[in-house]
Design goal:
TIM Barrel, eight-stranded parallel beta sheet, globular
Length: 335
């Protein structure tokens, strides 16, 4: 364990369990994800017969994960599904057993060292009643929260079905991590250079946050809701001044939002995955030091390679640094 005053907690890391092709076929033989283990710690996430993404064994080998946590000085890591695992587009009759198996897999992986590895569940958002039941079941078997995508089809987070789910999690004391997925514009104007991940993914996250603010949803949701947005909240912090200006100057922006958008930053959290000390300083200034938590996006290449380096090398006072590295996460997840 590290020698920091507070344990270092990485709240945003991914796993992909050793899903067999036969398991995936029960969901969809043509497109469901599974793991092709190529040996020597290397593998490929497959979708049906197509190669989706090269990966390595930290995604499914908890011993390697723990070793790499030790190298980075991370005491606790919270693991969530790789979004390709969500299965939102399938009928609930197939999606629910799939979701339950993925959540069971997560608990099995974390059983390697349950003091240091904590799972976040996934839920079938295509059926809100089933999603609520699975969130509660997951809590009972050891999950410390739930990860959801930032939208379901054309339903953003202010949709009444999704607000029902958020309210359930608030009432049950289930923290939420919102992760962008199924990015806008990925099939036409952003075909190269990973632009869906670099442009659309931050925009998706900002869209999710603003859908809760500008719709007035935060006025209706319980204040007990614990909700965190990945990747530093996307483009939200940098563009908040633009949103406040629009709220002041255009009545169509403030029609459903009684207070300035910037007044709602106390209703949600963000992780620290912004990769630049100037961006992190802005993020902490906008959100407040109590609402930013270390998140690495480990073990994918777009994540922070040396987990926590950005925060550790920041110019924050030591109490602030400790909050960002772990203190805020301990409170958010009740660890």
């Amino acid at each position: 364990m590290s020698s920091n005053a507070s344990p270092v907690v990485d709240i945003h890391s991914h796993f992909f369990p050793p899903i067999t092709q036969a398991e995936a076929a029960a969901l969809d033989p043509l497109a469901a994800p599974w793991l092709r283990d190529d040996g020597n710690g290397q593998g490929m996430i497959m979708t049906g017969s197509k190669e989706f993404r090269p990966v390595y064994s930290a995604l499914w080998d908890p011993a390697r994960r723990i070793a790499e946590m030790d190298e980075s000085g991370v005491d606790v890591q919270i693991m969530c599904a790789t979004p390709v695992m969500f299965g939102y587009r399938y009928p609930i009759e197939r999606a629910l057993p799939w979701t339950q198996r993925m959540n069971d897999y997560a608990v099995e992986l974390c059983a390697h060292d349950p003091a240091r590895l904590k799972p976040l569940a996934q839920v079938p958002l295509q059926d809100i009643d089933a999603a609520c039941r699975e969130a509660s079941r997951a809590k009972n078997i050891g999950h410390v929260g739930v990860q959801i995508g930032n939208h379901f089809g054309d339903k953003d987070l202010d949709n009444e079905d999704l607000l029902t789910f958020l309210t359930h999690c608030a009432n049950e004391g289930i923290p939420l991590l919102v992760h962008p997925w199924d990015m806008m514009g990925g099939d036409n104007r952003m075909k190269k250079w990973m632009l869906p991940w670099l442009v659309a993914m931050p925009a998706e996250t900002q869209l999710g946050i603003l859908s809760l603010i500008l719709s007035g949803a935060f006025e209706r949701l319980p204040r007990s809701l614990k909700i965190c947005f990945a990747h530093g909240g996307g483009s939200f912090a940098f563009l908040l001044g633009r949103v406040d200006n629009a709220w002041r100057e255009r009545d169509i922006v403030r029609a459903d939002c009684p207070n300035p958008p910037s007044s709602y930053v106390d209703r949600f959290y963000v992780d620290s995955a912004v990769f630049d000390p100037r961006a992190l300083a802005l993020l902490v200034d906008v959100m407040g030091e109590e609402r930013v938590m270390l998140g690495s996006d480990y073990p994918y290449p777009l994540g922070e390679i040396k987990i926590g380096k950005l925060i550790r090398q920041s110019k924050f006072a030591e109490p602030t640094r400790q909050r960002l590295l772990g203190g805020n996460a301990l409170r958010f997840f009740g660890l």
